[in-house]
Structure formats: structure tokens, C-alpha cells
């Protein structure tokens, strides 16, 4: 069928709204990072790239971002799988199937604020634990119970991301369990002599993970580039890539700006690599490309 | 055996209860903080509860009502444009011979960090005189929710839908008739869900709004952070309630409208 006017408009919009601005912006970032443009530009140079690549700040920031994204993904996947398999019936019907949607309406900004209020030294959790301890006559430790705000291991950032994402993935896994007829596959494996552990690790978990792989990789990318949660709960150093890029860009020191663009381009390269990976994942509906 | 089953059932019930409490508790804490007058250090419960802040909000005395109206207007505009444009683009991509490459392009704003892409985009917005304006913020947000809408609608365009469209043309219908009589009625439910999700992308957006708006376009997420920085948790909680409660009601009414990290749900 020949493309009609709305189809041509659709493609033109993609070029106008996405391709042109993204292409222009990344091109500009590249030119700025090599000193070809910019207020303090003194001609093309690899200086900013070399300086940034030799700086510890970049690598610790990249490592922190990868640590947060990987840890979040691992904890979220494990917890969501456990919930989906243990609470399969309550997730299909009953009050829990509705209540699990509540956290999906909470944005990162609010989640970060809540974690801050609950877990900062002298925060609500500490007060409630002390009050409970006093009521039960048990001595409770004073000070931060769990280091979740500005902590060195980014526990608060990870925990907030995990808490936000578990409901979505639990619902997703429960839905996939039903639509992929996993229960029938389990029965088949059992009738062929597989033990309960073999059914779980060789049938159930691989089927669910394979089917949700696109969502999982996209979630990894979303956490890797997250901003609000690490901005409020993270330390001054190291900072996650988005926060560090923003800080370098928003500073009054224009000399830091090429470095902000170097960071943005490094992040872009990482995301493109991950998107290429998503594209290769074997999946129906929902796969990239 | 029966005892073991009973124990397992009890454990599952306890787990269900813990999960249910974990789901509701954040919203309960927000509401409690928004109605607390004072919460002295070391106290487990606020000294007093009041509806004064909520009253102040709806009487229009504070700055929050302005932010609420701005956020609603901005998100409605972004969602309308993104849904319509994303719907058209997704169809064009779905039946294009260059489907793979075009779809990868649509994934870029969907997958990228808004702050990092916003950093690169800011020069363009400055040149176009759009930085620091609500229009600029709307345009920047549209790019992201449009990318999402394209990915969201792509699964709708199956060979069957194409066959319906061709049937309309075979019977002498125009492009407009194909959309009005066949395609739009078939996708009405999906359009509503797509619109709501595009609305949420704009509604929750913080980093890009901060960057492109230069801190001058005060949407609700920005107000939450402003209040946190001012060490005013009570107003931060009130702004948070305004951010959370409308989507919460809608998500509970229509569960398909829940936000997603991808497309296949």
C-alpha cells in the first residue's frame, strides 16, 4: 500500500521532533567537547576528553551509576519474581491486585522526598522505632538505623528505585505467568520427572525473564540515567552520571561546560550500546525493532 | 502434610499483608505530613493535625494552586500533542520498510536520561528563545512523551488493522473515512491509556523542566524540591499529595493506565 498523507506526516514528525533536535544536540555537544564551539573555545582540541578520561571523578561516577542500576535491577527482579510466584492468586484477584497499583502513581521526586523524611537521622522511622522500643521496654540504638541518606553505598538510592519498581515487575511477571501458560509448562516438566527446584530454575524463571527482558534492560537504562532520586539522596562525591553532568553544566564556571558535554556523550555511548543489546533480544511484541 | 500447607497459607497471608501495608504506607505518610502542624523532634506523632494547608491551597492564597494549574495545563497540552503525533508516527513506522531503524530513533527520547539529553538540547532552546518559558518546557517534554507514545502504539498496528484500512479504500472511502470509521474506533481504549501515560510522563517530569525552564517554570515536582530545600516537609508533602493523588485515582479506576518501563505488559 502506498504511504498516505498521515503516514508521511508521521515520519516527518519523527524527523522534526526527534531526529533533528537529537542530531543537532549531540553534534553540538561533540563540537563543544572538542573545543570547536563555545565561548571559551580556542580551537579544536582533545584536551577536554583527555582531561575527563584521566579524572577519577568520571570513573567513580560511571561505576556508581552502573552499581546503582545493576543492584537495583537484581533486587527488583528477585523480589518481583518471588512476589509474583508466591502471591500468584492474590495478585490475580482480591485487594492486593488493586493495592499494588498504588506505588505506580508515585514519581521519583516524591519517592526521594519520602525516603529522606523516613530515614534521615532523627527521621520518622527512627522516631517510630524509638517509640515502639519504649512501649515494649526494649532499648533501641540512637542515630540513623539504616544509612539511607547520603550514604557511601547509595543504599537509599537503590532502595527507593527498588521500592518503586517492584510492584510494576511483580504485576508484569504475574501477567506473563498467565499469558505464557507457564503453569502448563511446569506440569509438563514435572510429569517428565523434574524436581520442584528444576522446574523453578529451568522452566519458570527462564521463561519469565526471557519474556520480560526488554522491560528489564529499559529499566536498567532508566535507573542508569535517573536524576531526582540521586540528587536528593546521593552524596556530593561520587555523583551519578546525570547529577554530575547537570552540576558541571549548571555551574557558573564555563570552563566546566566542555566536560559536561564529554560526560553526556559517554552516557550516550553507553545507552546506545544497551539499546543495541535490546534490539538483539529475541522477543515478540515489545522488542526494539 | 495438611499442617505444612496451613503454615504455607499463613505465611502467604502475612506476606500479602506486608505488601499491602508497604503499598499504602507511602501515601498515608504523605497525607499525615500534609496535615501535621508541628512534629517536634523525637516525637512519634505530630503535636497537632490541621486541614489549614489544604484550605489555603483551595482558597488560592499560596503559590501551590498556581503550580497545580500550570502542571495540569502543561501536561494536558503535552499529552494531547504527543498522543496524536505518536499515533500517526507509530502507524507510519509499523508499515514502513525501514521499521527497525525508525523504531530505534523513536526509542532515543524514551530511553535517554531527560537531564542529559536536556543538557545537550539547551543550546538549541536558548537559540530559539524557548529556554525559561512554559512553551519551551512543553516542547521539550513533548519530545519524550512523543517517543513513548510511538513505542506504546506500535503494537496496535497489526496486518489485520492494515487490512481494515485497505477495505475502506476498496469500498471507496477516503483516508479521513478510514481513520474516522475504522482505525480510531478500534483504538479508542488504547488512545485513552496512551494519553494518560503521556500525561504522566509530563506530570512527573522534574530534571528536564528544571533545565529547560531554568527553574522559572514552577511545576509541582519543582515545588516539592523547593520545599525540601527550604526544610519545609509539610508543604513538600502537600505538593507531593497533589502530584500523587490524581494519577492514583485514575490508575485505580483504569489499571491499564499504570506507568510502564517499556511496552510489552
What does the largest sheet of chain A look like? none
Quaternary status: heterodimer
- N-to-C SSE series of chain A? HHHHHHHHHHHHHH
Q: Count of helices of chain A?
A: 14
State the secondary-structure class of chain A: mainly alpha
Query: What fraction of residues of chain A sit in β-strands?
Result: under 5%
Shape of chain B: globular
Radius of gyration of chain B in whole Å, from Cα?
Answer: 23 Å
Number of strands of chain B: 2
Helix content of chain B: over 70%
- As residue ranges, the low-confidence spans of chain B are none
The percent range for helix content of chain A is over 70%
Count of helical segments of chain B? 12
Q: What would you report as the Rg of chain A, rounded to the nearest angstrom?
A: 24 Å
Task: State the end-to-end distance of chain A.
Answer: 21 Å
Q: Indicate the low-confidence ranges of chain A by residue numbers.
A: 284-289
Q: What order do the helices and strands of chain B follow? A: HEEHHHHHHHHHHH
List the helices and strands and how they pair.
The complex is a heterodimer of chains A (about 290) and B (about 260).
Chain A lengths: L4 H29 L13 H8 L1 H31 L1 H5 L2 H5 L8 H12 L4 H13 L18 H25 L2 H10 L4 H16 L1 H12 L3 H6 L7 H10 L6 H24 L9
Chain B lengths: L1 H33 L1 E3 L9 E2 L2 H8 L4 H31 L4 H13 L2 H14 L6 H21 L4 H12 L4 H12 L1 H17 L2 H6 L7 H10 L3 H21 L12
Antiparallel strand pairs in B: 1-2
Helix pairs in contact in B: 1-12, 3-6, 3-9, 4-6, 6-9, 7-8, 11-12
